[in-house]
Amino acid sequence: MAQTCNVAGAGLAYPVTHTVDQQDNYHGTVIADPYRWLEDANSAETKDWVVAQNQLTQSYLAQIPGRAALKERLTKLWNFERFSVPFKEGGRYFYSRNDGLQNQAVLYTTKTLADVPRLLLDPNTLAADGTVALAGLAVSPDGKYLAYSTAASGSDWNEIKVRDIDSGKDVEDHIKWVKFSSTAWLHDGSGFFYSRYDEPKEATKLADVNYFQKLYFHKLGTQQSADVLVYERPDHKDWGFGAQVTEDGRFLIISASQGTENKNRVFYKDLSKKDAKVVGLLEDFDAAYDFVGNDGPVFLFRTERNAPRGRIVSIDTRKPGVLNWKQIVPESSNTMVSASVVNNQLLVDYLSDAHSLVKVYDLKGKALHDVELPGLGTAGGFSGKRGDTETFYSYTSFTTPSTIYRYDLKANKSSVYRQPKVDFDPTAFETRQEFFTSRDGTKVPMFIVSKKGLKLDGSNPTYLYGYGGFNISLTPSFSVANLAWLEMGGVYVMANLRGGGEYGESWHAAGTKLQKQNVFDDFIGAAEWLVAHKVTSPAKLSIGGGSNGGLLVGAAMTQRPDLFAAAIPQVGVLDMLRFHKFTIGWAWTSDYGSSDNADEFKALLKYSPLHNLKKGTCYPATMITTADHDDRVVPAHSFKFAATAQADQAAGGAPILIRIESKAGHGAGKPTTKQIDEVVDRWGFLTRALHMDSGDATTAGQ
Q1: For the segment 231-254, what is each residue's pLDDT rounded down to a tens digit?
Q2: At what angle do helices 548-559 and 636-648 cross, to 10 degrees?
Q3: pTM for the complete prediction?
Q4: Catalytic sites, residue numbers
């Protein structure tokens, strides 16, 4: 074993967690669930348990030296001006700005780039503690109104309000019970389309399953009760709907998804015709189809149909059969992420070995040129109207704070629009990309970030991060939290595991359902490579990840407890037999499968972190994190995993702690103050678990 069961923090007195005689029969296999009572987050005994666990965790963390200095350094690093990518609508520019330590970014607008911007919406005024966040926004095409959605305490439940942009005041419109919704205005600004669920029970709204989403139209100046139902599918409770209106205002495009499956159906409605019906265009649910633009009835889509890495096709809605499709931009060796039509050109964003590559084509698919990017990083943005000659994008890398560029399409030239200044020297660090071989021979990339001149002697405290699911790609990005870790002498490693989208749909599919173990094998393979090449050693290696990445960490630490000294599963999916019974969990069966299916149950049981903890095992030092308002991955996952791990940890073993945030959710919209506190606790925990010099935290930045 890499670590002995005699470590700092051993012998903690964990809160007493009683068990119940709960057993479930899965296809003839009986599974005990002794901590089922912790699924009721509203019960008095669960709340008492949360208080007791938090007290233990905070008392343990408070004893770690250097935390005050680490918080001071993090706060200083975090205090830099940050901007979002601007967009233009109705003759105005819009962007958000955080002056440094504001809990939430503030929305501004301006008529020209040279004008002094005007504050339009400050979410910090919506709650004294910064726990109400701006979750989405849409400006009417005439530039008169802003429809904005807010989320309270990190919940996925949103409310939509409307602000008069000239006056800066809200009008009376108020939409509730919105979740996972776009907002799409009619061209004349008279109203917008949105998606919602039926009103839930107040007491259980953070846990109840979400089915039967419906698409509505809201006419400006009316009550929500008068909203018109545009589309629903009572025959498919698991369908969700996203809506957008074409730039010419003629068509409503409806994308119908089924959970998180990387496939969708497409319907449309001709808004120029009174009482026009919704028409099915792509109903086979055979691939992903992203609407890019249109020439009247001819639609452009980025699709993975017959092209796992993506291509662009045009479909004439008057003769939509597959044989009539025209290929505009073919599939290439790079992964096509997105596309937009600006300046009557196609701007196509690709991933090349998990970093950005942006190409420009004419509307017939002829390659014109690349957008020159500063280096090995991530670019995003490139939105605009067909007639625009400018667009904006952000560029970031592990050591480059997100910089905003204005791109002149006529001149094919980028210029810096906003560049943040952060209190650190980027030349002191280096990034390299390595490829390792996973268990089945697959080559998998990872990025290794460290101070320059890293000694390969196995002594470097290392934080290995991954995700590996839902077609989500991990690409280089700047993080103040990670920068502090690097300054402390830590190595940051990000692995691009299967299950993600870095190499297209085939890469994603190879890490789903019965092949999910590939993801964990990739992660373990990354760890083994780091040890073999003396970047680190098991006594200095920690792992972290959130949500699906929390599952990854839970699976890795239960499968290879000898390989890691510390583990931090954040808001993780840890009970793989019951995840689909809460909120939107059912939607994840496209990646995970379901315990309702006999074959998938067997696969899930083999790696479910909760069910693979074993009594008397020496597990790594573990800090599980969750939040009381997480209605994406309900905190019961973390509660039950923590209780079981504490009971199963070998005598004298490393600490098993759980950190439960209040008035927070899955992560989106978390106030700056809470983010800083969380990072201080994470790195503080690792300084002790990895036996880092107690002065490491205090020397950050020196």
Answers
A1: 999 999 999 999 999 999 999 999
A2: 10
A3: 0.91
A4: 547, 630, 666
